[in-house]
Amino acid sequence: MPLFTVVMPVYNVEEFVAEAVRSVLYQTLTDFELLIIDDCSPDNSSEICAQFQDPRIQIIRHSINRGLAGARNTGIRHARGQYVAFLDSDDIWHPEKLSAHAVHLQNDPELGLSFSRSAFINPDGSPTRCFQMPQLKGFDAGYLFCRNPVGNGSAPVIRRQTLQDIAYTANYEGAEETCFFDASLRRSEDIECWIRIALKTSWKIEGLPQPLTRYRLNAGGLSASLYKQLESWEQVAANTAEYAPDFIAQWGNTARAYQLRYLARQAIRLEDGPAAVALLHRALGCHWKIAIQEPSRTLVTACAAYLLRLTPPLYRHLERAAVQVISQIQHRRINKEIISH
What we know:
The chain is α/β, with parallel strands linked by helices. It has helices spanning 17-25, 45-50, 67-78, 97-106, 141-147, 160-165, 189-200, 223-243, 245-269, 273-286, 290-293, 295-310, 312-340, and strands at residues 4-10, 32-38, 57-61, 83-86, 92-93, 111-121, 127-131, 156-159, 168-172, 175-179, 204-216. Strands 1, 2, 3, 4, 5, 6, 7, 8 and 11 form a nine-stranded mixed sheet that branches. A two-stranded antiparallel ribbon has the order 9-10. Helix 1 (17-25) links the parallel strand 1 and strand 2. The chain is globular, with a radius of gyration of 20 Å. The relative contact order is 0.11.
């Protein structure tokens, strides 16, 4: 039985998937199986994966497209490892990722989900020199709902027992199957799962200071997709309210405001100033106290949104300078926390 099961859904990623697979095979900890879930990919992704001759790799092919959550569920159902790690097939892992998470999980038997910081990379794989910088420990379910410190689907490693503790049965195509992620969601399925772990189990969720995941930013994208993401998030809130109505009553508006501010920042990245301003206004209208709870991030978001809307050339000039300063600050903080970890 391998120590780790790595679950990698594959769909339309022929440009990136070989690099993702290699980042798993080059892990310093070698006790793993890699389950590649071909979710009816229309390109050559599956053929590229099949070229890797490694006995630890198993390719599982769906007969119909199930989406990211459905593909992860398939992988978990086939998993034999004590720990289950997820890697989206356009992202990359640091060679020490599995090794670091093994130590983290083995040192704390109450830890159910271990995640790492993530370094942003450009579509071509080059580093942006910026990182996701979440709080790593000491947070409750409310903080998790508002800020999602796990960050992305390639960062977490979860005990298989933790996943079993949130498993439920659902009907799909006339058959009952065990689910862990909500396969009805095509977006926001990650945060829905993390919230369920926090609310329905006693397992702890904590992060490592090292940026062990390299998270690829999309080359394109439309602002319309941000509103679809908001719709999915609202569905997560509605689903959570069915089993934790008091939690949603307490945290729903606050979390919605943080989600809207996050989407405003994504609109800035897409260089859609009007959408960024509109989303920020909705965030402040939903829960204006985010300006007090996180004044720096809210102010920076507001300045960037208005600059992009009013004077895009000035915004782009200031952004280049700001990235250098932010990168230096983040590097110093990461190094300090790694030493003290």
